[in-house]
Each structure stands twice: as structure tokens, then as C-alpha cells.
Predict the structure.
Amino acid sequence: MDSSHDIKVWSIRNLIPDTHPRKDSLLVRENLVKQMETGAVVPQGLIAHGRGECFDYLLGERTNAFAERSIEAAAALLLLSSYPVISVNGNMAALAPKELVELSKEVHAPLEVNLFYRNEEREKKISEILRDAGASEVLGVGTDASETIQELFSERRKVSSRGIYKADIIFLAMEDGDRTEALIKLGKKVIAVDLNPLSRTSMAASITIVDNFIRVVPKLTTRVKEMKNMSKDELQRIFQSFNNKDNLKESLKFISERMSQLALSL
Ligand code: PTJ
């Protein structure tokens, strides 16, 4: 990264006063812009982030009880999995690289780059971000992404034979619904993080965590650590008692009731 860019980011940081009520959110945006300038994030990723921010606002920018329940079910499923894989796109790598590597190590799930706007430069850039954050290996880069998911027609169809292709569980976030639908058709289970409970990804996933990816990843790792000593039966019971559609309904009800209360308080 050149020094003029450093100066630009530095000056933006100093333009945001410590007392600014939206400081954290503004710094997340700055980070995404910075990663867009390096090529890791696509401009469309900024639009996707804005959509997410809007839902986060409606959800009160916190991890609600329904999300805690889906995080628990996701932790159970990851611990039951024989071969989990974490699928990483530009936004995910930019928002929580260290946290993704920690989750990957905790559940023994390889990290695989899988992009909608795929090109070799981005693959390498995202792999570099993950390696700088502590990853020893990153799948899905260059010729490693040589297997194909026939049901898909976007660049997301290119996967690693050592990763998504053979995985039983895939953890993913911030994407269009086509791939989740295709992975489910192939008999795999999908854990998706999506702030929009109405998205096709949310509807199609086995477990949808309706919460901000930045909050979810460390919480999920903590929950995995807490549940590690549970028996397989207990983990199965937790996963089996989780119903994704019911959980999505709860999130919609929560938003609707919260909006009504806010309207009354004006
Ligand atoms: O890096 P690439 O090439 O794979 O491109 C990725 C993007 C993000 C451009 C692409 O997959 C895309 O267009 O995604 P969508 O269809 O806009 O979907 C993004 C979804 O993620 C929306 O439902 C958003 O509400 C949601 N979202 C955005 N930010 C967050 C989020 N969900 C959880 N946490 C967030 N921080």
C-alpha cells in the first residue's frame, strides 16, 4: 500500500471525533473502503455492507436472543461435522480476518476463498490477508479451485477438491442465495450469517444467524469452546431442536415489534 493511501486513511480517522456516536460503524466503513482500494473488496461489497448496516439498525445493533440460539445450534453442528469448511469472500476477509482464523483453528475447518467476482489478483489478496492474520493454509487460490459445482453458473462454482467440494458443513456470509441453494441440493449443510432474514441465503440455509458478521464470529468461537466437552447426543439434541424457519420468523417479529415500540416512543 502506498504512503499517500496511509495518509488518506490516517486523516479520515482523525476526522471522526472520539465522541462521534457512530464512530465504530464509520471506522468499519473506512476499513472496507481501504480494502476496496487494495482490491480485496469489490465496490459491490460496499453496497452489500450498506444493506447489512440498514438491517443491523433495525435489529438494534446487538446480538439478540434468536441469534444467540442460532449461534448455539451452529456451534453444535460444527462440532458434529466430519469436514467443515469456512468459505471466505472479500467482505468477510476485510471485516474479521483474525477472528476467522481463530474459528478455523478451533473447529479444524480449512479456510477457502470463494468469490462472486473472482479473479486471481483478488484470490491472492484475500489469501494474503488471511495468512497475515495467522492462517497456515488457504484453499481455493489459483489451480486449487479446479473442482466445479455443476448446479452453479457464477464464478462461485469453482471450488477446491480439498475444501468446499468435499465438505459436509459450510460456514459462509454475505452472498447471493444461489450457492446456498446449490450446496443444500448437494446434501451439504450451510451455516449462513446474514443480517437480512428475508434474503434467499437466509431462507435456504440450514442455520441462519441473523446478526452482524463482526459480532458473530468471535461469539461462535467462544460457544464452540464452551460446548467442546458435550456428548454427541447432547450436540445432536441442540441441533435437532433448532428450526431455521421458526428462528427467522422470530427475527422478523422482533424487528416488527421493535419498530412499533419506537414509533410509540417518538
Ligand atoms: O467478494 P465477492 O466477490 O464474493 O462479492 C461479495 C458480494 C458481497 C459483493 C456479493 O456476494 C453480494 O452482492 O452480496 P449481496 O447479494 O449484496 O448479499 C449480501 C448480504 O449480506 C445481504 O443480505 C446483507 O444484508 C448481508 N450483510 C451485509 N453486511 C453484513 C451482512 N450480514 C451480516 N453481517 C454483515 N456485516
In short: The beta strands are 84-88, 111-113, 138-139, 147-148, 158-159, 169-173, 189-193, 207-209.
